[in-house]
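Retro notes
What went well: the complex prediction finally ran end to end.
Inputs used:
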Amino acid sequence: MRGHAARAAAFVADEERTAWHDRSLWFVRERRDAASREVPEWETLRNAAARIKRHTLANLADHLEAFEANARALGASVHWARNAEDHNEIVLGILERHGVRRAVKSKSMLTEECGLNPFLEARGIDIVDTDLGERIVQLRREPPSHIVMPAIHLRKEEVGLLFHRELGSEAGLSDPTRLTGVARAHLRKAFLAAEAGLTGVNFGVAETGGLVVCTNEGNADLGTALPPLHIASMGIEKLVPRAEDLAVMLRLLARSATGQAITAYTSHFHGPRPGGELHIVLVDNGRSALLARDELADALSCIRCGACMNTCPVFRRSGGHSYAATIPGPIGSVLEPARDANAHASLPLACSLCGSCKDVCPVRIDLPEQIRFLRADLLRHPTAPRSRRLGLAISARVLERPRLAALLGALARCLAPLLPRRALGAWSRGRELPPLPRHSFRSLYRRGKRSPIDEAPRSTIR
Amino acid sequence: MSDAFRSDDRARILADVRAARVPDPGLPDLVVTDSAGNDRARQFAQALRAAGGTCIAVPDASEAAAAIRALPGFDTARRVVSELSALPSRHPGAPPKTPQDLANLDFALLRGLLGVAESGAVWLEPANVLLRAAAFLASEVALVVSHSDLVADLHEAYARIELGAAGFGCFVAGPSKTADIEQSLVIGAHGPRTLSVFLVEDAGDPRS
Ligand code: SF4
């Protein structure tokens, strides 16, 4: 089975694009840094957010019941889906009861996870993603490559070509403003024709039974302001207990995601609009199973800001599609193998354990620790790459025996510089082997102990 | 599928969730920001500008109306939805009945209930579906907010909002925007291409 490394190879083959992708995401990371520095109580907010989400997870069943009761009291219908199939059937049922043929949908990673679009299309329902980036990848018939910037892997010329082919815009267009104008006109028609608006949910509020959806384009707001039928798909982990908890979450979310103080639109839905219907579909699809795994349950705190992707040295250089998963990047490397170890065995290996994701995560998920845990777990799995399992098995044997380790170390210091570069595989591509030290760390350490001030520093300098 | 089947699903999900034992750190204390010395109006204007909007301070409601009349294109605009009594709505032909009737809306003039200094966001609770749709459909949006309704941050905002009392409420910070093509910022992804906020010093009733 092709793993992350093989898929990444396809992406990095285009060096120019890789460098550009890397720069684009790092730029977003820097904007996040600048935005966070403008808030003196940033770390207090992160601590508060982490506790709010952990507390919610610890009492999730109670909060879900409260949320459901309050949402119903406001006139919303609440549905429960154990898995993706149930979710899709429930949404289809609602659409069919209303005779809906055309629907618009704003960004929702959950409906991606459930494969809702192909499911509805196969049943004759025209479903249009209205977030510009999502519309682009929908027209290309590919999944988003990033949870906040779905088309970050594409160049503007490619979008121009796509719009020319699919939307009949003039050939050779590549100016982002004009391309956005083309999409605006195209999507305005879809909005006006839509008989239902589907959305994801950023936060559900247990004490009020309300939903919060954040967008910069205003597409979720348009999609729910025009047609009277609103269907909101929501993972069961999306709750916060109280209205005031939204303040903490929203102050962190946009700053972490794009470096904005807040998204252009933060809509709060409490019940259906007059004369309309609001359906909330609560989806488990593996979440309760994840909640039961002590080492990993924290990952359900994720608020999908994407900061861990923007900072990840692997994601920036390998592209979101190399993860072949709904959620890519560091958090995807936890969530996806936890859901399906067979399909995503290589993801915990797509990580240098540098820890940068943990430093930026607004809800303080210990991603490197979870990835390390999954790595240990997955390497025991029969689908793990043989070379990795063998390599680790050998290292374990050697490191258990200090004498053998010292001997092999000395041997390696003599022989490694003589090896043909090819023997080092991908590691030698674009890099030179650094000059190897003449003495092992152990011998330096031993000497350092004898004369800690004089000798140790000098030998490291040389 | 029958409802009985569905209620089994509900029970099963809740049981699965309950079976997981997750340690509870308890809810944190409220976050309080020391904002006493802040110049809220200035902070608000700056934050709004960063979000692509414009903040215009006016002494009173009638000056706000005059300033809106002076907005480029307002004079000749054919379609206006207004919540401000000094500036009537305009619509050629029959009055709009559904949100779809507002498809080519030029201006939306709405009342903002709160302004958040830290982020330049304005809290709206449109009173009906037409006003609500107007906020997202119009090419130009003008909001009127009273200076005394500026709060420091979202903590203060949620302390003042009675969440759930209105079926729909929204923080609006700047016009519609996207950076989905090569990270280039484009204003006017869908609805509003401009957002002007008129900050009224001596409000009285900002609607009048
Ligand atoms: S894991 Fe943390 S940083 Fe990554 S998307 Fe989720 S909340 Fe953001």
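What we learned: Strands of chain A lie at 77-81, 102-105, 126-129, 196-199, 203-205, 210-215, 229-235, 239-240, 265-269, 277-283.
What to try next: split runs per interface for comparison.
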